[in-house]
Amino acid sequence: MVMGYFRACLATEELSERTLRLTAEVIDTNPANYTAWHCRRKCLAALGKGLAEEMEFTTEAGGENPKNYQIWYHRRAILDEHFGKKEDGVEELSYVDKVLEEDAKNYHAWSHRQYIIEKFELWGGEVASVEKKIDEDIRNNSAWNQRWFAVHLKASKEGGGEYSAKEEVDYALKIAAKDCHNESPFRYLLGVLQECWGDAGKVAEGPEDIARITKEARDKLGEMREQGSAHVHAALLDIAEKEGDGEEARELCEELRDKLDGIRFKYWDAKIKKMEEKAAK
Amino acid sequence: MQKVKFTVATSTTEQQEDTEKEIAPFYIDLTKLTGPNLAHLREVGLLAEDGFEVRLLREKHVKYLTGGLEKLGSGYVSLDASRPWIAYWCLHGLDLLEAVPVEMMPRIVDTLGRFQNTTGGFGGGPAQISHGAPTYASCLALLLVAPSYPKAYDAIDRRSIYKWFLSMKRPNGGFMMHDDGETDVRASYTVIAIAKLLNLLTPELVEGVAEYILQCQTYEGGFGGEPGNECHGGYAYCAVAALQIMGKLGMCDLEGLKGWISRRQMGFEGGFAGRANKLVDGCYSFWQGGAMAVVDAYEGGVTEGGFGTGVTEFVAEVGEDGVDTSATVEAKGPTSGGLSFDQAALQRYTLLCGQHVEGGLRDKPSKARDFYHTCYSLSGLSVSQHGSSKDGVPLVYGDARTNVLKPTHECFNIRVDRVEKARERFKDEVCNHDDLI
């Protein structure tokens, strides 16, 4: 019945209170009905409705751990249309916090968080708040990705595009040392090192500092090597290759293939073959 | 088989341990089974009657998926904005099993046709605005039945779809999923894949698209849904396949990408997870396995993009008891097969942990079966059997008499022969921006 009325309103393009109420009923039975959300936004615009209420409605429709695209996009569209003050952004961040308490890896919530931080210029406190998330679960890879986002955004807005690689490397190594079997900090570390080695414009440090940072990271990782973690080996391998230490790289790769990381046998084996080809030349 | 190690317990390691515990009973040594346990597994069809090879429950999956098609007309309130998805998931699963019911085709084509809008594209149901996902799913569904039921080709209004695609395009090279909707790499992929299949991939449509997608590759090597977002199997597949179709996969960081995809395969479970430090899920058999097949095809010389594929179909001699098993290679251990992941382990996960004994496949044993997971688990199995196969001979884990699926195209995820037919059908149609608009 509701669907029938709703379709009739769509057909006549009636942007009224009645249609708005119908969209709420349709959304109640299926929050993924994107046509109903779309129509709702049109009605709101035509009626000039109170928008704080609309955020409340959306929160209600989403439940505790919303995972559909429509609900998150609706929040974004409403914020884009009608909110621009920093307080609005702060309030929206506290909503995201609540969702992340329920599910610390909710993909949509993290994506929405990035949107808010950028739109409302809230990057100032983000690294600290992400550290808290990582303290709660050092394997929360979404939080690690958010750290990358926040550090780079802040650098681009305030630091002329540059950030301190040393701070990031130190942080990644500190958490990596707590549990060397946790992939997240190792990938973060390698991401920063790649930027050090590649695009010099991204990090604040110069070539000498970068050489020192690389060496320190290599030493710290070397100390962890005995613990038999594929992540430690893989990180050492990347550094060895960068430094041109072919023999060590090969040894690490063989250990990964034959002892530590058998499920990726073909991946490591292909790397070894490439090294052999390179050496033959 | 290596379980995840840790020294600091967190909620992530707790969930991981629970999953490993859940999986372990499925990985017992089957050859040691005796008595009622063995009899039970043979009775439900999971084990060969004359051996210990694991079997794909073909007939049960066919029954389950056919049921989905029957419900298409009425069903599922929660999916009433995703009806083309149900059609595609069920049809493609059935197509891999060579069991699409020809008698249902007219009704399916008619139903999907009613979701098409005159302004271009398909909605998720009647009287719904056009959306990239149902447009993708509807077109794939139509293209996969069309070789048997050519009216399905005529049901697609190419010109209006082209105009609609262009109207969804954003200045940053991304596409919106629908009018006043979200922009992400799913939208990019659905547009590029369908445009390629319908011969609509004009320079005007492609302009700036790769640049948007490339911004979504992260420091880990995979791709996220939007620039800055965490990399994720579903989005990574969309990004990788779209780049390959446009002939631009070489523009991304391929080494980083390969490393990231390969790290998503779980050491103990054998299946793939969607993100780092997340759990195995059968649907990623295709999202991750398919993405790797795209990369391997590219590195194997399929650099033209578009219709190129790393899959060659082998036409086996069919004996009285089904497939000629001499035309298959046994998937055994992490070294077998030409793809850069452990194909045997993935097939094993799919067959042992993914199958519901009543038909259909699932995320993991504790989860319910559904059409989505059935489609993508089977698609991943197909990729893992046929991807980069030597001379087209499939690599098969378990009973080769029952387990071989038809090869799916790694960029479009409909059968390779369906892609070929679509290419033939549309190759002489207008593909020029000025004439299309």
Summarize the structure.
Chain A is mostly helical and 281 residues long.
Structure, explained:
The complex is a heterodimer of chains A (281) and B (437). Chain A is mainly α and 281 residues long. Chain A is 76% helix and 0% strand. Chain A has helices spanning 2-12, 17-29, 34-47, 51-62, 69-82, 86-102, 107-119, 126-136, 141-158, 165-178, 183-197, 207-224, 230-242, 246-260, 265-280. Chain A is elongated. In chain B, strand 1 (318-319) and strand 2 (322-323) form a beta hairpin. Helices cover 45% and strands 2% of the residues of chain B. In chain B, the strands form two sheets. Chain B has a two-stranded antiparallel sheet. The longest helix of chain B has 16 residues, at 284-299. The chains are: A mainly alpha (281), B mainly alpha (437). The interface between A and B is large, with 60 and 60 residues. Chain B: This is Protein farnesyltransferase subunit beta. Chain B: Its cofactor is Zn(2+).
Key features?
heterodimer, A: 281 residues, mainly alpha, 76% helix, 0% strand, elongated, B: 437 residues, two-stranded parallel sheet, 4 strands
Q: Which helices and strands occur, and which strands form pairs?
A:
The complex is a heterodimer of chains A (281) and B (437).
Chain A: H1 2-12, H2 17-29, H3 34-47, H4 51-62, H5 69-82, H6 86-102, H7 107-119, H8 126-136, H9 141-158, H10 165-178, H11 183-197, H12 207-224, H13 230-242, H14 246-260, H15 265-280
Helix pairs in contact in A: 1-2, 2-3, 3-5, 4-5, 6-7, 7-9, 8-9, 10-11, 10-12, 11-13, 12-13, 13-14, 14-15
Chain B: H1 11-23, H2 35-44, H3 58-71, H4 83-96, H5 105-113, H6 132-145, H7 151-154, H8 158-167, H9 185-197, H10 203-206, H11 209-214, H12 233-245, H13 254-263, H14 284-299, E1 318-319, E2 322-323, E3 329-330, H15 343-354, H16 371-386, E4 395-396, H17 400-403, H18 416-426, H19 433-436
Parallel strand pairs in B: 3-4
Antiparallel strand pairs in B: 1-2
Keywords (chain A): Magnesium, Prenyltransferase, Repeat, Transferase
Enzyme class (chain A): transferase
Protein name (chain A): Protein farnesyltransferase/geranylgeranyltransferase type-1 subunit alpha
